[in-house]
Write a structure and sequence with these properties.
Structural class: alpha+beta
CATH class of the largest domain: Mainly Beta
Order of helices and strands: HHEEEEEEEEEEEEHEEHEEH
Helix content: 10-25%
Number of domains: 3
Radius of gyration: 31 Å
C-alpha cells in the first residue's frame, strides 16, 4: 500500500518481489516439515534423575519430495537430520532424563527446520506414543541381610556338588548319582552312562520388605530397594519383594529383576 501510494513503480516492484519471495519460501518450508512421523525407542532400564540414550526414528511419508535440515527436539534434547528421503526412515540419538519415578509418558516432539533460506524457522509438534516405567534412582547403603550380616555386595560361587546349580562338568555314572542327572544324549554316543555334575545353590533367597527399609520417606526407601535388587541379583542371589500386602516370590532372571523394579516405580502412585 505504501508503494502504491507513493506512485513509485520501482518500489512497488521491489516490495512485490519480497512478498512473493516470502510466500514461496513459506510454502516450501511448510511442505518441508509436513508428513514426518516420529517414533522413540528407550532402553528397558530407566532410572529417575539419570540420563539415558534414546533412539528417535523419523520417517518422511511424502511420496516424492525429500525433507531438508530437519531438527527433532524431545524434552529439550535435539538431534538433526540433513536430508530425509521419502519412505526411508532415519534414526538419531539423544539424551533424555526423567526427574521422577513412575509411569512416564513422553512429550510431543518438536519438528523444526530453517529450510529453504533460514529466514524463518518453522516448526510443528509431532505426537509420540507410549509410556515407560521409570525406576527409583538406586541409592547405595549397607543393609543387614540374612542373620544380621551386612550385605557386602559380593557373592562367591559355590564349588560343592548339588542338584540345582550350574553345570560344572560331565563325568561317568558311578551308581550314586540320581537318574535325573544322566545326560542321555551323550550316553548314547558312549559305552557308559554320562552324568551331569551340578554346583550347589549356596545363595539363600532374600525377601525385601519396602516398609522395613531405612529412609526418611517412601521415595528414599524405594531407592534403597532399587539398589538392593540390582546389587543382590547381579551377584546371583534370588530376590523376592513384599510391597504393601502383596508378596512376589524370589527369582534370579533379568525379567524378574525388571518386574521388581517396575513394582517399585509405580508403588504409591495409584
Amino acid at each position: 500500500m505504501a508503494a502504491v501510494n507513493t506512485g513509485n513503480n520501482l518500489l512497488f516492484l521491489i516490495v512485490s518481489a519480497m512478498l512473493g519471495f516470502m510466500a514461496v519460501t513459506g510454502l516450501l518450508g511448510w511442505m518441508n516439515i509436513r508428513q514426518l512421523s516420529v517414533g522413540v525407542q528407550l532402553p528397558d532400564e530407566l532410572y529417575a534423575g539419570t540420563q539415558t540414550l534414546a533412539s528417535i526414528r523419523i520417517e518422511n511419508r511424502k511420496r516424492l519430495l525429500p525433507s531438508f535440515l530437519v531438527t527433532a527436539t524431545l524434552a529439550g534434547s535435539p538431534t538433526s537430520f540433513l536430508m530425509l528421503d521419502p519412505r526411508s526412515p532415519q534414526t538419531g540419538s539423544l539424551l533424555l532424563s526423567f526427574p521422577r519415578r513412575g509411569l512416564q509418558a513422553l512429550p510431543d516432539a518438536r519438528i523444526s527446520s530453517p529450510f529453504p533460506v533460514n529466514f524463518f524457522v518453522r516448526f510443528r509438534m509431532a505426537e509420540v506414543n507410549g509410556s515407560y516405567p521409570v525406576f527409583p534412582a538406586p541409592r547405595p547403603f549397607v543393609a543387614p541381610l540374612q542373620g544380621g550380616k551386612p550385605d557386602a555386595g559380593q557373592a562367591t560361587p559355590s564349588t560343592a556338588k548339588g542338584y540345582e546349580g550350574d553345570l560344572a562338568k560331565i563325568s561317568d555314572y558311578t551308581g550314586a548319582e540320581s537318574l535325573k542327572l544322566i545326560h542321555w544324549r551323550l550316553s548314547a554316543k558312549h559305552e557308559v552312562f554320562k552324568v551331569k555334575e551340578m554346583t550347589a545353590t549356596s545363595q539363600e533367597p532374600v525377601l525385601l520388605e519396602i516398609d522395613q527399609l531405612p529412609g526418611r520417606d517412601l521415595d528414599e526407601r524405594l531407592s534403597h530397594g532399587s539398589y538392593l535388587i540390582n546389587r543382590l541379583m547381579r551377584n546371583g542371589r534370588p530376590v523376592g519383594l513384599k510391597i504393601g500386602d502383596r508378596v512376589i516370590a524370589a527369582g534370579t532372571t533379568r525379567t524378574h529383576r525388571l518386574k521388581l523394579l517396575t513394582e517399585l516405580a509405580v508403588y504409591g502412585q495409584d
